Amino acid sequence: xxxxxxxxxxxxxxxxxxxxxxxxxxxxxxxxxxxxxxxxxxxxxxxxxxxxxxxxxxxxxxxxxxxxxxxxxxxxxxxxxxxxxxxxxxxxxxxxxxxxxxxxxxxxxxxxxxxxxxxxxxxxxxxxxxxxxxxxxxxxxxxxxxxxxxxxxxxxxxxxxxxxxxxxxxxxxxxxxxxxxxxxxxxxxxxxxxxxxxxxxxxx
Length: 204
Description:
Blueprint: H1 6-29, H2 31-40, H3 44-69, E1 73-78, H4 83-91, E2 93-101, E3 104-111, E4 114-119, H5 125-138, E5 140-146, E6 167-169, E7 198-200
Parallel strand pairs: 1-4, 1-5
Antiparallel strand pairs: 2-3, 3-4, 6-7
């Protein structure tokens, strides 16, 4: 399962869907299918099972192929805007460019002996999530680092300071006005009903 990629998962989904559709169609035809199968000496259920087994075997072979072809481990680095990765780009060696779509271009290379992939996907969590998902789907990502301009509330923090977060909160998530039942209350950033608010950082 660890070797599955979204492409292989799509193959498996299609395989199961095709087998299910074939089984449903066989059940709809009912007697006609049974008569045809009986004349050939083949059970309709046996035909369905052989077809499903074949599709599953093909999908497993695709899993193995994709797992063996997966690139080496890389560190993903994001900066929302191009100027935020401009300095990084100057220090990365052997840069390669991958145009994913008109809105996302990824760069690969080596930074101080570490293989990296980086990009400036745009402002906002949707762009960031899309870029990271694409990187994870294409490479074996071991860590994600976000760099660039940031705001702060502590007066002692100065430009250029490095801050290591123990955890983060999705400040856009605000259901403080949501009262599904008397006495219910939620904090800013908290997901309702599951008491999930902090996203812990990688301890490394």
